[in-house]
From TrEMBL:
Coiled coil: none
Superkingdom, natural source: Bacteria
UniProt protein name: Aldo/keto reductase family oxidoreductase
SUPFAM superfamilies per record: NAD(P)-linked oxidoreductase (SSF51430)
Provenance organism: Streptococcus caledonicus
Family matches, as CDD domains: AKR_BsYcsN_EcYdhF-like (cd19092)
GO molecular function, one term: oxidoreductase activity
InterPro entries assigned to the protein according to its UniProt record, in alphabetical order: AKR, AKR_Detox_Biosynth, NAD(P)_OxRdtase_dom_sf, NADP_OxRdtase_dom
Pfam families named in the record: Aldo_ket_red (PF00248)
Length: 304
C-alpha cells in the first residue's frame, strides 16, 4: 500500500525498510532482505550516512547491483548531520555528506535527504543554500528533517523555497510522547508535558509525513517491548488482536501506527525476511477506534 509523501506527489510504500542494521549482514543476506521487501510492496528505503559508518549504504548498493534492481523501482532516502560528538547542519557538511552518500549508494540522486538530529548551532540560511544547490544540481529531489519540534521546523521552513516533506520521529505503542500531552492538555501530570510543541498537529496542518522510527522499541536504547515483562499487558493485548485478525503481533504493532489519520509511514529495522513478510500484512488491518485506544491504554497510558 502506497501513500503520497508530504506535498511532493511522490508515492512511496507506507512501510519503509530502515537500513540502520544492514552493515551487519553479508551481501547475500542483504539481497534476501531487499528482494523480500520489494516483493512485499516495500519500495521506500531509509538510510543515514552514519549507519554502520557508511557500510550499510555500501552493503545495500552491492545487494541492489547483484539483484539488478532498476533505480526507479526504489525510493531512496538518506540522512546527514550527525558527526562524532556533535551535530552539523553547515552548508559544507551537508554538501560533503550528500556526495559521500551518492557515492556509497552508487546513484546520481536521492529522492529524499533528511537532516538527522537538530543542530543547536543551525544557521537556516546555510541549510537553505545547501538544499538549493543540491536541488539545482539534481542530487536531491526532496528534503525533510528528523527529531525536530514544530518551531525548529517553522524556523527552517521560513528560509526554504519548498515545503519540508517529512519529519522522522520515534513512535511505538510503548513510546508515545507525541500523543500523550494531547490527551492531557492542561493537566498537572507527567503525561501532560508538551515535549515537541505539538508536532503531530503541525505536521498534519502542513502536510508533512511523519516517519515513525523504531516502531518495536521502548525509549531510545531501552530495547524491544515484545517479551519485556514491564509491557505484559501491552503484549497480551497486541497478541489478542493478532489472533482476531489472523496476523502476527508485529503486523498489529505496525497497523496501530498506520491507523493514525496523519497517514504516517512506519520505518522498520528488521533484517529478517520472514519477519518482514509478517510485518507487511499490517496494511491489511484497519484497527477500530476502541481497538486503537485499547492498545494505547495497555501500554500504561491513562485517559483523563
Ligand atoms: N531518525 C532517527 O533518529 C532514527 C533513529 C533510529 C532508527 N531510525 C530508522 O528507523 C529504522 C528502524 O529502527 P529499529 O531497527 O530500531 O526499529 P525496529 O523495527 O523497532 O527494531 C528492529 C530490530 O528489532 C529486532 N526484533 C527482535 N524481535 C522483534 C520482534 N518481535 N518484532 C520486531 N523486531 C524485532 C529486529 O531483529 P530482526 O532483524 O531479527 O527482525 C531488529 O534488530 C532504522 O533502520 C533507521 O532507518 C531512525
Amino acid at each position: 500500500m502506497k501513500q503520497v509523501i508530504g506535498q511532493t506527489g511522490v508515492e512511496g510504500s507506507r512501510i519503509s525498510l530502515g537500513c540502520m542494521r544492514m552493515a551487519a549482514l553479508d551481501v547475500a543476506d542483504a539481497e534476501k532482505v531487499i528482494a523480500t521487501s520489494l516483493e512485499a510492496g516495500i519500495n521506500f528505503i531509509d538510510h543515514a550516512d552514519i549507519y554502520g559508518g557508511g557500510q550499510s549504504e555500501e552493503r545495500f548498493r552491492d545487494a541492489v547491483t547483484n539483484l539488478g534492481i532498476a533505480r526507479e523501482d526504489l525510493i531512496l532516502q538518506s540522512k546527514c548531520g550527525i558527526q562524532r560528538g556533535y551535530f552539523d547542519f553547515s552548508k559544507d557538511h551537508i554538501l560533503k555528506s550528500v556526495d559521500g552518500i551518492l557515492k556509497r549508494l552508487d546513484t546520481d540522486y536521492l529522492d529524499f535527504l533528511v537532516l538527522h538530529r537538530p543542530d543547536i548551532l543551525v544557521e537556516p540560511e546555510e541549510v537553505a543554500e545547501a538544499f538549493s544547490q543540491l536541488k539545482q544540481s539534481g542530487k536531491v529531489k526532496h528534503f525533510g528533517v528528523s527529531n525536530q519540534n514544530r518551531y525548529q521546523m517553522e524556523l527552517l521552513q521560513s528560509y526554504l523555497d519548498e515545503p519540508l516533506a517529512v519529519n522522522q520521529l520515534q513512535l511505538s505503542p510503548a513510546h508515545t510522547p507525541m500523543f500523550d500531552f494531547g490527551v492531557n492538555v492542561n493537566m498537572r501530570n507527567e503525561a501532560g508535558v508538551n515535549r515537541d510543541s505539538g508536532i503531530v498537529e503541525y505536521c498534519r496542518l502542513n502536510k508533512v509525513t511523519i516517519q515513525a522510527w523504531s516502531p518495536f522499541q521502548i525509549d531510545l536504547g531501552k530495547g524491544l517491548f515484545s517479551g519485556n515483562p514491564d509491557y505484559k499487558e501491552l503484549n497480551e493485548t497486541i497478541s489478542r488482536y493478532a489472533e482476531q485478525y489472523g496476523v502476527s503481533d508485529e503486523a498489529i504493532i505496525i497497523a496501530w501506527i498506520l491507523r493514525h489519520p496523519a497517514k504516517m509511514q512506519a520505518i522498520i529495522g528488521s533484517m529478517n525476511p520472514e519477519r518482514i513478510v509478517k510485518i507487511a500484512k499490517a496494511t491489511e488491518v484497519n484497527l477500530t477506534r476502541p481497538e486503537w485506544y485499547d492498545i494505547y491504554r495497555s501500554a500504561g497510558n491513562v485517559l483523563p
